[in-house]
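Researcher: Next sequence.
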Amino acid sequence: MSIKIAYLGPAGTFSEEAAECFANKASLEAALEPCATVADCAGAAEDDAVKYAVVPLENSLEGSVHATLDVLMTSLELSIQAELVLDIEHNLLCPHKEMGQISQVYSHPQALAQCRDFLRQRLPQARLVPALSTAEAAAQVAREQSGAAIASKRAAKRYGLHILAENIQDSENRTRFIVLGKETPVPALPQKASLVFSVTNAAGSLFRVLQAFADHGVNLTRIESRPARKQLGDYIFFVDLDGTPDDINVKKALRQAAKEAVVLKLLGSYPVLS
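Model: Next structure:
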């Protein structure tokens, strides 16, 4: 019996590709379920409508996906079960073969930003129109038979569009996807961990939390702040680190950091599958 895996849809997105990759690497017989938003993906997993949700977390050109950070901040049931990193190749898709006829280009805001140089040089006159996903942009262009979309070759094939230009992103483009769920899907050993914490708005409070990891030789590979949605000046901090809570130094660092933080929550200890 196949398990259900949600992904940021519609069909043809890079998230669908990541979900397929996850299922293959985890040796899962899976039915992939597209969802309209990251929050919908997470909600489906929380409600047990699907077993796992595959969502984008971070892009090498444009940074973090805030909708995913918001889910990590608020979900009480889900944790990160695995990570995948995919190379992302953007393409200009169109119902016709004439680039000169393009007056509008549709895509996800991050994809539009990742192709900024190409759009400025080749389509300076085109209006950029944000869409919920790259595949939704391709579907809209196919329905309306006008404009162009920035999306994957998978989307071009699915929606019957011509590829007018390939590999149009500004530079090397990689996206980090995470698998959210309630239980570990694969036997692979965890390699890294993620956590979120908050501190008091006082001098040295953030330093003392971070110092805990330095004291025990734990390497932090990423740190990012987001508004805590309480009052101006209050933030929460997302951190990735090498190692897992089973490592003695990580365990000591987390224990010390927790004493300095107002709140500290482990978001997951997980393997990297790509």
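Model: DSSP finds nine helices and 15 strands in the chain. The first strand starts at residue 3 and ends at 8.
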